[in-house]
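Ligand-bound model needed. magnesium ion.
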Amino acid sequence: MIDADVQDAINTQIRNEYYSSYLYLSMSAYCESRNFPGFASWLRNQSDEELVHAMKFFDYLTDRGGRVVLESIEQPPSEFGTFLEMFEEVLEHEREITGMINNIYDLATSKNDQATLVMLHWFIEEQVEEEKSAEEVVEQLKLAGDNAAALLIIDRELASRESE
Ligand code: MG
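Prediction:
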């Protein structure tokens, strides 16, 4: 049986992963409204991935004999400024998620919950990838600045990128 505090933390993280999905889906809609289908597609893939993350926590909790209790999901913003500002927000959000995963890791360590630590290794590696891919787009957008042609090239490149 899983420790009650670890169970609560995982339930909250299920909500956080759903919020991430909701946030990226809202960003995707914003990009669609501005006619940048490549940015929209990249964010939609990210949104889908967050649902997979949520369900990994869901299944883990169930496998451990825990009880999943779904929490309410906050409304995400609908306006995101420039594409650079938006992707800086993606990067900042992923860094926050990394901090949350690390906090659950610390909690599981304090409870000597080895199974949860092993499960979290997947997420720790995943966060390295999440931060890296957001950082790449931020760096490209910094180079592009206000140049519309450069933004369209980045948009086209992201349109062809497979979900990681
Ligand atoms: Mg995630």
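Residues 17, 20, 50, 53, 97 surround magnesium ion (CB under 6 Å).
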